[in-house]
Amino acid sequence: MKKQTITPFQLNALLCLFLLGSTVVLGLGLEVEEDAWIVTLLSSSIGILILLFYIYLIAKHELNLAELLIKGFGKYIGKFFVFLYIFYFLYIASRVVKDFTYFIAQILFYQVEFWLISITFICIVAYGSSLGIEALARTSEILLFLVILMLLTIIAFSILSDPFDLSNLLPFFSNNWGAIFQSMFPERITFPYGELIAFTLIFPLINDKKALVKKTWIAIPIVTFLILVLTEITIAMLGAKVAAIYTFPLVKAIEQIDIWEFIQHLEILSVFTFFFVGFIKVSIFFKAALYSAHSLVKFDRTKLILLFASILFLMAVFNSSSLPQHFYIGLKVIPEYIHLPFQFGIPILLFFVLHIRLKLGKN
């Protein structure tokens, strides 16, 4: 069967939607209130370096992460790491599914069981994965257009709405640098930029290798601009201190939109936006797990998708028992104890091991 490939634009579309992911609803950095814009800009700058490191690691050897782990650490240790990454990708995907489940349950379907929302979402992801990466990439082109259109609509109506108050954005610098860096590390670095580790399984599929280095990083400035504007819109609508206490601050800001008592209740736009970006984010993690598994054993594709979808569902149902616990684990525990080793520890160690093996091979 012909190997599936994606274009540079499709890769950028996937990256944009992936980075927006849960960030558009949860990760606005409002814990530092008016200084959220500083956190957003500094985090994205580091995010570009992280992305370039992942690209360099893959482009230099022209292998995906799973293949590099086996090449660098050997057959047994390398496959052990690949096995760990499979569960890492599925676990992080399950947390995004849980984000979506809690969001939909609170905003749209109050009486629907959590597990029913989760299994519906996972079935859509599994079906999309069965169609291949090309179908997902083509879908991302359409979804990116729709997401940007909806976000621009939200921004425009927010600015025209009565609750919008620019004075809420002041002062532009209200905290010390210590508080800002504490907000950034490791939470705003690992989420969402460190999660781009999933794309180390996708990068080798691009049909223009030169564009991988030259054009892929453009996705981060685009997403940064959107997140920055949405953050400032949220603060302008609610006030920084009020916005910081809400679980879904952007949605609360959208609820305040009122133009001539005619244009109201645009929360449905946030629901569609989160569904689209959440679908892409979970699908990328799911595909990363599938590609990793194929480097270990040649499974039947359909059976492997069903197996991983079942594991993903069980993880999504049982990984937390309440919304506060879910956010505490996801934003405080996971970044430090799971994200850091999988996003940076192992890849950096792999980089040095491959470099040493290359030098020894030349000598």
Protein model, in words:
A two-stranded antiparallel sheet has the order 1-2. A hairpin with a 3-residue loop joins strand 1 (258-259) and strand 2 (263-264). It is globular, with a radius of gyration of 20 Å. It is mostly helical and 363 residues long. The two termini are 39 Å apart. The model has no long low-confidence stretch (mean pLDDT 89). Helix 1 (8-20) packs across helix 6 (133-160), helix 3 (65-73) packs across helix 14 (323-362) and helix 4 runs antiparallel to helix 14. It contains 14 helices and two strands. 72% of the residues lie in helices and 1% in strands.
Which stretches of 5+ consecutive residues score pLDDT under 50? none
Task: Report helical residue fraction.
Answer: over 70%
Question: What proportion strand?
Answer: under 5%
- Biggest sheet record: 2 strands, antiparallel
Structural class: mainly alpha
Count, helices: 14
Report the span from N to C terminus: 39 Å
Total beta strands: 2
Shape: globular
Give the C-alpha Rg.
20 Å
Short description:
It contains 14 helices and 2 strands; from the N terminus they run H-H-H-H-H-H-H-H-H-H-H-E-E-H-H-H.
Question: Key terms for this structure?
Answer:
363 residues; mainly alpha; two-stranded antiparallel ribbon; 2 strands; 72% helix; globular
Write the layout of secondary structure elements.
Layout: H1 8-20, H2 36-61, H3 65-73, H4 75-107, H5 114-130, H6 133-160, H7 177-190, H8 209-214, H9 219-238, H10 240-243, H11 249-255, E1 258-259, E2 263-264, H12 267-294, H13 301-318, H14 323-362
